[in-house]
């Protein structure tokens, strides 16, 4: 029996929604949100990156990332410095690094719980399938 693509898409959205809710809820205990922690993680991976690059990495518009980065800077979690032309470079502060590290532990716990119904082989298969879908035009 063929799988309806709309049912499949809804199942993917439902799993993503569950993941986001669980992460956001648990990250609140570390004093951050999923969006903030994801931005800190992106900045950590690419210190000095522009808002444009970080927006793409976090699946946000440049405007949304700029507003988020402004809040992170106001909280003392990142430094924003002038870069090339009109761009701004982003770097974590020591406080941002602490929040990032706390979030890493929380994310590992939440995601381990979320994917616990799957065997290691099923996780690998799911990853491969999602990467194929994500890479298709």
Overview of this protein structure:
By secondary structure, the chain is mainly alpha-helical. It has six helices and two strands. It has a two-stranded antiparallel sheet with strand order 1-2. Helix 1 crosses helix 5 (94-114), helix 2 (34-45) crosses helix 5 (94-114) and helix 3 packs across helix 4 (62-74). It is globular and about 55 Å long. The mean pLDDT is 93.
Short description:
With 137 residues, the chain is mainly alpha-helical.
What is the secondary structure topology, with strand pairs?
Blueprint: H1 5-28, H2 34-45, H3 51-57, H4 62-74, E1 78-82, E2 88-92, H5 94-114, H6 120-135
Antiparallel strand pairs: 1-2
Helix pairs in contact: 1-5, 2-5, 3-4
Q: Walk across the major sheet and give the strand order.
A: 1-2
Q: Structural class, please?
A: mainly alpha
Portion in strands: 5-15%
Determine the N-to-C terminus distance.
26 Å
Shape: globular
Task: List the defining traits of the structure above.
137 residues; 7% strand; globular; 6 helices; two-stranded antiparallel sheet; mainly alpha
